[in-house]
Design brief:
The protein is of the alpha+beta class and about 400 residues long. The chain has 16 helices and five strands. α6 runs antiparallel to α7, α7 runs antiparallel to α8 and α10 runs antiparallel to α11.
């Protein structure tokens, strides 16, 4: 068992950290304008490097705003250096940022990243050295989470599940965790239960993830640790059960299109039969089935293909979507029904990277649930290129 820094779990301190939860950190307006967006755009890496150097100079001179932007730009850069062969480059950039940043919170983030990079390489001594330089009981949730998650990774490297749970809690919500690292904390917590022999409990913890794809995203950088190697399959089974074994995601539009196509074929068959029949028939008996059949044979395949496109998009969003939270602003009864249950159009305010925006989705709700849902928070996934295309997290 390794000697780790132990932050206080005093209830009053945890309550103070808890009120800081839910904040999403986004690049400042100045940094967004300089980068031309909220990320480092392809082809503009050289510009971003110049911006980074300028921010480092200003931050070294005590400019707290520049230090904040430097911290954000460093995180964006390191996020692009995800490969194992790029750890040395990520470490060098982080060390340079550590020398320049001004605020204690900014230093804590760089030290936490250095510790986690060392864990990825399996070098416990370097990880512990970075941890030893961190503030143990910081007042802000970002710094506290940096320490807890980084220390939990070192404990995971040592296969010390008890220390992980002491740092992160037995279940989500017991220890306040910053939004940006909540997914990783959940996976580490689940892995700790697995290390202690509770595979079923680990799978239950994984159900706290904001999206089923989050497990793979959080495990990938730490593949050498073998996180949740046994509970991951059980978690996948639980998710499939919740989703009702509907992997293709085919919606009502597809099935309606199939039915209309069949009806069109039937109508066309009737019209052709009447036309080749030797017995005389009123012209209307031939014209109406013919026109109806042609119209349905046109509309049916169009609707079927649209349903397939929707299903493909759903699968893409499920796999590559960005987990977000959204607040229900208002609902409207669409008049549709799934059995006896009404289908509502929900207008949501989504917490986006550059600020809140509105999007909508349809959901079947029983009347008591519909009456209570306005103002509540939902977990969704958003299309990475089309943020208004959203799905409820399953």
């Amino acid at each position: 068992m390794v000697a780790l820094p132990v932050p206080s779990n005093d209830p009053s301190r945890l309550a103070q950290l808890g009120v800081q939860q839910g904040r999403t950190r986004v690049p400042s307006a100045a940094l967004t304008a300089a980068l031309g967006g909220t990320t480092i755009l392809p082809g503009r890496e050289h510009e971003a490097q110049e911006i980074w150097r300028g921010l480092a100079v200003r931050a070294s001179g005590g400019d707290a705003g520049a230090s904040e932007d430097l911290m954000m730009l460093t995180a964006l850069y390191v996020g692009r250096l995800g490969g194992a062969h790029q750890i040395a480059e990520a470490r060098a950039l982080t060390k340079a940022a550590l020398e320049a940043v001004t605020l204690p919170r900014h230093r804590q983030e760089q030290l936490g990243r250095l510790s986690r990079l060392a864990v990825r390489e399996g070098v416990a001594d370097a990880a512990l050295e970075a941890l030893a330089a961190m503030t143990v009981d910081p007042p802000d949730i970002e710094s506290d989470t940096e320490l807890r998650v980084s220390a939990a990774l070192v404990a995971t490297l040592a296969r010390d599940g008890k220390s992980v749970l002491s740092l992160l809690g037995q279940r989500g919500g017991q220890i306040p965790i910053d939004e940006a690292k909540r997914g990783l904390a959940t996976v580490l917590r689940a892995n700790a239960h697995e290390l202690l022999g509770d595979v079923i409990g680990a799978a239950e913890v994984l159900k706290e993830l904001p999206h089923s794809s989050s497990l793979g995203k959080e495990r990938e950088p730490y593949a050498a640790l073998g996180l949740c190697s046994r509970s991951a399959d059980l978690y996948g089974t639980l998710v499939a059960q919740v989703q009702g074994a509907k992997p293709a995601g085919l919606d009502g539009l597809f099935y309606t299109g199939v039915v209309i196509t069949i009806l069109g074929a039937v109508a066309a068959t009737i019209a052709i039969t009447l036309m080749i029949d030797d017995a005389p028939h009123p012209i209307a008996d031939i014209v109406f089935p013919t026109l109806g059949g042609l119209l349905f044979l046109f509309l049916g395949p169009v609707m079927t293909l649209a349903g397939i496109d929707n299903a493909r998009q759903d699968v893409y969003v499920r796999k590559h979507g960005i987990p977000r939270t959204a607040r229900v602003l208002h609902i409207k009864d669409t008049g549709g029904r799934i059995g006896p249950i009404p289908v509502y159009l929900l207008t949501l305010e989504v917490a986006g990277e550059t600020g809140p925006y509105q999007a909508a989705l349809r959901k079947s709700l029983a009347l008591p649930e519909a009456n209570a849902i306005v103002g509540t928070e939902l977990h969704i996934v958003a299309h990475p290129e089309k943020p208004t295309v959203i799905l409820l997290d399953q």
